[in-house]
Batch of 2 targets.
Target 1
Amino acid sequence: RPLVVAVANQKGGVGKTTTAVNLAAALAMKGFRTLLVDMDIQGSASATLGLSPVDESCVDVARVLLDERPLEDAICETHLANLSLAPAGERMAMVDLHLASAYGRERVFERALLAEGPQRLVATFDVVVIDTAPYLGLLTVNALVAADTLLVPVSCEYLPMLGLKLLGETVERLRQRAGARCEVMGYLLTMVDRRERITVEVEELLRKRFGDKVFEAVIRANTHHKAAPSHRKTIFEHEPEKGRGREDYTALCDEVIARLGLR
Amino acid sequence: RPLVVAVANQKGGVGKTTTAVNLAAALAMKGFRTLLVDMDIQGSASATLGLSPVDESCVDVARVLLDERPLEDAICETHLANLSLAPAGERMAMVDLHLASAYGRERVFERALLAEGPQRLVATFDVVVIDTAPYLGLLTVNALVAADTLLVPVSCEYLPMLGLKLLGETVERLRQRAGARCEVMGYLLTMVDRRERITVEVEELLRKRFGDKVFEAVIRANTHHKAAPSHRKTIFEHEPEKGRGREDYTALCDEVIARLGLR
Ligand SMILES: Nc1ncnc2c1ncn2[C@@H]1O[C@H](COP(=O)(O)OP(=O)(O)OP(=O)(O)O)[C@@H](O)[C@H]1O
Ligand SMILES: Nc1ncnc2c1ncn2[C@@H]1O[C@H](COP(=O)(O)OP(=O)(O)OP(=O)(O)O)[C@@H](O)[C@H]1O
Ligand SMILES: [Mg+2]
Ligand SMILES: [Mg+2]
């Protein structure tokens, strides 16, 4: 059974997708068989790893959830070794409403993950990384319930800080009532620009409040992160070898490997 | 009847709240009686205009929608002349699910807006500005259906561009089936940093595709926008008189006044 990491924060634009994609890529480059699951209604992660040519035989996560199929049906190869993708699909926007009337509606994704397909493909992965939507609806709840651990990106601004309490309360309630068992593996500071006073203030507050839960590694503000998706590239393909974006996500990857006790 | 402007874009972190708050503040400073309605689950706009002391008699938008009350019940004064706020409230997260089973569920907010309270307060406003969530659920649909016009902030990055097609399709479908009549007043480029190539590329693409629908005014990347909410301030109170953030939102305000034919 792979370790399942959900990348979550209901605040918009804090770097969930950028983190899910580049952490998954970094793990794959280190030799871990990694599956990136796109559970965002907008499919940004799927767009960034743009399956090309489109794999016609590849079903998507929306259909897996709507038709209650094994997750294996939605797994596609990417152009990177060791990295597979389960793309979101265009019908993701209807999933919340359809799931609302399903029995055990918080665990539909978990059931899909545990369901053995004929190829027993899910079992071959070391890690599953889930990208989630900026909305704590049923879709995201499904990711949280299926996860072993949460990685919470937090951008160094005031508004993103406000949401952390709600996220914590939601996780707690899901643990009590929906069989969730995930804990926060760590808080990741993103879009860090230490010349900005607000960045320094937010970083201090976060480290004070969450101590070692805050990763040592931070992701610095870097225009290459903005540009990479427009070229359908991870930061590792977009930046030159000594790039700061690559450096930051490699440092994060090493810390994640240590915290998860991988290998 | 006030003109209703919904600030919408389902992509996260593109500057909806920063725009809703500062456009509303700019209109108020120009003498227009302005109501800012916070329809985001996370209540970021409400937090930025932090009602202090908390107005105990002030009900919130969540309760107005859940109990089908007139919007007037949720209107509170702010510390700025001519600017009132209808705060989101903590129960906003349950609104989508509760609205799902209501009759005419796309128009609950519109009914609340049109319902005359004893003070006939809504009719005294010139403009209503609605801040929306990064999610095209029933809550945001209610804002779109009630709106006369849409202001779409787009940050100069690739991922935000992807969502515009879905937003357009949603608005079209709402016009055909739910009585929506809003049109896009304009697309607003945000977090603009013209030293970045991706910014220049995205701006060109957007102006090519949407022509004059793209505002001339753009909101430049500016650390003061990040810092202002942590001080519970609009950019007009946070920056010195010649600040670039104030300049940008004033320019936007003038263009909005022209496009809406206000006064
Ligand atoms: N470290 C960084 N420096 C500069 N830009 C960044 C950085 N990280 C992410 N970005 C850019 O900021 C935008 C938001 O990032 P991203 O889409 O990863 O956030 P998100 O939390 O997934 O958003 P959403 O809530 O909409 O899913 C993207 O255009 C991305 O390219
Ligand atoms: N022009 C700008 N320059 C720098 N930072 C900005 C600018 N505009 C907004 N920000 C900051 O970027 C973050 C995202 O902005 P904002 O919250 O307004 O976006 P949003 O679209 O409302 O997000 P959400 O989708 O989560 O509601 C905030 O911390 C805000 O302070
Ligand atoms: Mg994302
Ligand atoms: Mg917002």
Note: Strands of chain A lie at 3-7, 34-39, 76-77, 83-86, 127-132, 149-155, 183-190.
Target 2
Amino acid sequence: MGKIISITNQKGGVGKTTSAINISACLAKSGEKILLVDMDPQANTTSGIGMNKSTIKLSSYDGLILGVDCNKLIHQTDYSNLFLVPSNVNLTGAEIELTQIDAREYKLKKMVSPVRNDFDYIIIDCPPSLGLLTLNSLTASDSVLIPIQAEYFALEGVGQLVQTLDLVRKNLNPNLAIEGILLTMCDFRTNLSKQVAEEVRRYFGDKVYKTSIPRNIKIAESPGFGKPIVYYEMRSIGAEKYLEVTAEFLKLNRN
Amino acid sequence: MGKIISITNQKGGVGKTTSAINISACLAKSGEKILLVDMDPQANTTSGIGMNKSTIKLSSYDGLILGVDCNKLIHQTDYSNLFLVPSNVNLTGAEIELTQIDAREYKLKKMVSPVRNDFDYIIIDCPPSLGLLTLNSLTASDSVLIPIQAEYFALEGVGQLVQTLDLVRKNLNPNLAIEGILLTMCDFRTNLSKQVAEEVRRYFGDKVYKTSIPRNIKIAESPGFGKPIVYYEMRSIGAEKYLEVTAEFLKLNRN
Ligand SMILES: Nc1ncnc2c1ncn2[C@@H]1O[C@H](COP(=O)(O)OP(=O)(O)OP(=O)(O)O)[C@@H](O)[C@H]1O
Ligand SMILES: Nc1ncnc2c1ncn2[C@@H]1O[C@H](COP(=O)(O)OP(=O)(O)OP(=O)(O)O)[C@@H](O)[C@H]1O
Ligand SMILES: [Mg+2]
Ligand SMILES: [Mg+2]
């Protein structure tokens, strides 16, 4: 039974896409069969993993709004065990279109349920908002993985996010759990990173992965080549840390 | 006649709020009367400038959705010449509520028009999306200032943003101009920053400010103290560069 996990944080630029791509790639490399679903109209996951956006005919929009069979949306990526439901710019209008549809928060759940058992994990990259695209993802998910950038504004938004998770549990998906909290873009030479990390560990306790991801230029370069970090520069600290946090993730899930 | 400027980019974490706060503070310091409008449900501008979110009764939500008089929403900040219309979490629901309202894209324009001539500049901080909150801001604005982080994903979204600006000009606000493009978080020791900057200058020509903002820890620290950089650490490279780009901005606007 495939586990469905949303990568969510309404704060922008905290490493949602980077974590979705790199944790998925590390899981696939360790033999897990992975479906990555891009629910962000920016389609950064789609391009960051090397898909050519202009060749994509059907996307998450078609599954969500038009009810197209998910199997028709799934692409094989260049990386073994790693499959993708791409996004494209049509998704920008989806939030407004969804407001007119019945059971609007359950559309993604309906889309991915038929393929759930074809994969070990389904990883959903969310846009930077708490609108209907993110609500759809949270409703479809077993758990949510929250990247938090080690900076002030990212810390501020955590309260709103936790409140939204409570609302989703109450009204849409009672079993939604927290998969884990991942500290990203850390530079522990600065007080700022240290203070934010302390605060996050105080708030979430052992839900915070022991591994944190440092700021690393190789991570920022890799999407420009359409490659996850473990395929772009295996010897980098970025690859090392994403492999480490994936090992932590698997240890928690295999028990 | 006050000029209204949106700070917009649907890519998350590119320095919209940081630029809104710091350009506004630098303009206020040089004698311009500034109204900062926080249109992001995250309310980062509101807290980054030192307002205590829990003491705020009325916010941009009340002006936008309930039609409350803008004068009732304006707060004096701790900094002379700098005023704020704060945001709060109610704004999260505004995007969905706006879909049911007539002339939904013109609500912000209607809200700020009555106070337009009380200020030299009205600066609007937008959320990381191209939804109805951003469309409201673009419809209310004379021009748009676009921060672009010197990284791959930020470059990718520029095409979508330019298409949206064209749509807004065609259907909602024919006079919407580009105020300027600001390169942020630059580290020109890296090829990535150099390549992105070259690409942006090739695409936008002299619309790109000569000044770019380097990555600077003092900039990331300052919102935690509720202070713009020129009040937090005047001797930092961050303060110097925001003063420089503001001088460029004023030179272009005073002619
Ligand atoms: N550990 C890291 N070191 C260096 N750069 C990073 C790191 N993680 C992410 N980045 C870069 O920071 C930027 C923001 O990351 P990313 O786009 O993954 O965040 P996001 O949360 O998905 O953003 P959005 O809110 O727009 O969806 C990107 O340019 C990315 O390449
Ligand atoms: N020049 C800079 N140097 C270092 N840090 C910066 C710089 N500019 C912004 N930051 C930091 O980077 C993060 C992202 O910036 P900011 O929140 O202003 O972006 P944004 O575009 O408003 O994000 P969102 O899309 O969530 O609204 C913040 O933590 C901010 O403090
Ligand atoms: Mg993303
Ligand atoms: Mg912001």
Note: Chain B touches chain A at residues 10-14, 17, 41-42, 44, 47-48, 89, 92, 95-96, 99-100, 127-132, 149, 151-153, 156-157, 160, 163, 190-192, 217, 220-221, 223-224 (CB under 8 Å).
